[in-house]
Design a protein that fits this description.
Keywords: Membrane, Transmembrane, Transmembrane helix. It holds the Pfam family Band_7. The chain has 284 residues and is α+β, with helices and mostly antiparallel strands. Helices cover 47% and strands 22% of the residues. It has three domains: 81 residues, no CATH class; 111 residues, 2-Layer Sandwich (Tetrahydropterin Synthase, Chain A); 59 residues. Strands 7, 8, 9 and 10 form a four-stranded antiparallel beta sheet that branches. A three-stranded antiparallel beta sheet has the order 1-5-2. Strands 4-3-6 form a three-stranded antiparallel beta sheet, with no helix packed on it.
Length: 284
């Protein structure tokens, strides 16, 4: 079932007619025109029953003995068939601040995750007739989508090398886009459109937060050490090349090995190295 527009007419004139009929009926009763007075009362009530006030970004869904007749969206005082049943529904944008969920990510690590969803009704017929309670439907499906998102992606890349995949922490824009697309697919049957969906809270669960922090610190230390070693090796290569180019000193393989060892200790050490002057020789 899809939404269809229902044409209505302005209700101001009919409001005036209804009031005239109601307030004019006592004069008919006084003058003895009882039948005409009863008819005026009945006609006035019928006319006023067909009136509906529609605010901006609001719709009125009408049914006639169980049949969907259409949705009125013209704002102001409107009038339709008095026999139509009328139900108002808001078309404004709404916020859903999801609760924090504890979910296992793709790697099996427990994480805490929550999302904020901005949504609105775009098809009033589907919202009222395709699901029991469209607001509860949005809440439950949003929670299910967040759980599926967390199960389908890792919190962070566990490997330092290799192909980097989309993760919850490092690819926020792509993750929000995936969540928005999945929510639109899930909520299309309820006539709801997602304006924006984004992760509002993301963290490791408390029981593994300490261990994961140590892992991140260790990864940072390893990465820093790797960069230091790469730089030190480059400096040693440059030093040996410059010494050979300038012919400052001729070094055999044993002296080169000793020089490389000493330079790497100096360049890669965490603390300042105190030099030791060797007055002897390697061959003595």
């Amino acid at each position: 079932m899809s939404e269809k527009n229902l044409t209505s007419i302005s209700g101001y004139i009919l409001l005036l007619i209804g009031l005239v009929l109601l307030f004019g009926s006592p004069f008919l009763f006084i003058n003895g025109a009882i039948v005409a007075g009863v008819f005026c009362v009945f006609a006035g009530i019928v006319v006023l029953t067909g009136l509906a006030v529609i605010n901006p970004n609001e719709g009125v869904v009408t049914t006639f003995f169980g049949d969907y007749m259409g949705t009125m969206k013209q704002t102001g005082l409107r009038w339709v068939n008095p026999l139509y049943s009328k139900r108002k529904i808001s078309l404004r944008a709404r916020n859903l601040n999801g609760q924090t969920l504890k979910v296992n990510d793709k790697m099996g690590n427990p994480i805490d995750i929550a999302a904020v969803v901005v949504w609105k009704v775009t098809d009033t017929a589907k919202a009222l007739f395709e699901v029991d309670d469209y607001q509860l439907f949005v809440q439950i499906q949003s929670e299910a989508a967040v759980r599926h998102l967390a199960n389908s992606h890792a919190y962070d890349n566990m490997e330092g090398e290799g192909v980097a995949e989309v993760t919850l922490r490092d690819n926020t824009g792509q993750i929000n886009e995936v969540l928005e697309n999945e929510l639109n697919e899930r909520l299309e049957r309820a006539g709801v459109s997602i304006i924006e969906a984004r992760i509002s809270h993301l963290a490791y669960a408390p029981e593994i937060a300490g261990a994961m922090l140590q892992r991140q610190q260790a990864s940072a230390v390893v990465a820093a050490r790797k960069q230091i070693v790469d730089g030190a090796v480059g400096m040693v290569e440059m030093a040996l090349a410059r010494l050979a180019e300038k012919d400052v000193v001729r070094l055999d393989e044993e002296r080169k090995a000793a020089m490389v060892s000493n330079l790497l200790v100096v360049l890669c050490g965490e603390k300042n190295v105190s030099p030791v002057v060797n007055a002897g020789t390697l061959y003595s």
